[in-house]
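User: quick one, sequence for these tokens?
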């Protein structure tokens, strides 16, 4: 399978105060990641994908409850956000196999996840537009990080190990797929999430929704009742 082409130069220019706050917050987190992990992109991916899987579930939960209260349609947002959360979780499961996080990193994950979950839940309640913009900027940085990871692999600084079995099954990769193939499809996933969340933020702000990068095909993770049907 070939990863779809993505535009690496996509960046939403911060307009009002909401966008500037979202961008500033993202840059602070990027600085923390750069300081803590340096060039250890595999370990960086494990921690960041744990955080990245939070917004989709938070957004789906709040939109679900909002639609119940207002007795209105969700316009496809709930399923989209849940798919995003699931997709990010599969990124995490893949990079756990690659990087084998230490107990210290697992402790960091627990602390960061709780703090970020509470923060993002509150932010979404106050301003869903800002919350989606934050995720859009997060994903912009993720595309940059995975591009750097590809360079590390291509230049021999990170070993191009065989792709984990879970990644081969999820993205339908061939048996001889490598880590480079995995990073390519993960980066394409992140570009898709980037455009979807900027699009949601634009829609909430009454702005035009731009083009959305293609998402690589992946296996549908069926619920138990469908498997038994």
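Assistant:
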């Amino acid at each position: 399978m070939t990863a779809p082409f993505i535009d690496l130069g996509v960046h939403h220019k911060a307009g009002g105060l909401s966008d500037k706050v979202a961008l500033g917050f993202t840059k602070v987190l990027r600085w923390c990641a750069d300081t803590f992990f340096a060039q250890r992109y595999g370990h960086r991916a494990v921690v960041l994908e744990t955080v990245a899987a939070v917004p989709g579930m938070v957004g789906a939960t709040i939109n679900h409850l909002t639609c119940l209260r207002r007795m209105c349609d969700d316009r496809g947002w709930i399923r989209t956000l849940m798919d995003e959360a699931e997709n990010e979780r599969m990124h995490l499961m893949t990079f756990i196999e690659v990087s084998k996080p230490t107990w210290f990193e697992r402790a960091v994950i627990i602390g960061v996840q709780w703090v970020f979950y509470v923060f993002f839940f509150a932010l979404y309640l106050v301003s869903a537009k800002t919350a989606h913009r934050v995720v859009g900027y997060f994903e912009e940085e993720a595309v940059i990080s995975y591009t750097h990871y590809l360079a590390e692999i291509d230049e021999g600084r990170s070993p191009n190990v065989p792709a984990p079995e879970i990644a081969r099954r999820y993205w339908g990769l061939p048996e001889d797929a490598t880590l480079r193939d995995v990073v390519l499809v993960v980066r394409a996933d992140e570009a898709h999430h980037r455009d979807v969340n900027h699009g949601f933020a634009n829609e909430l702000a009454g702005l035009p929704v731009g083009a959305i990068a293609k998402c690589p095909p992946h296996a549908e993770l069926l619920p138990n009742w469908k498997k038994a049907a």
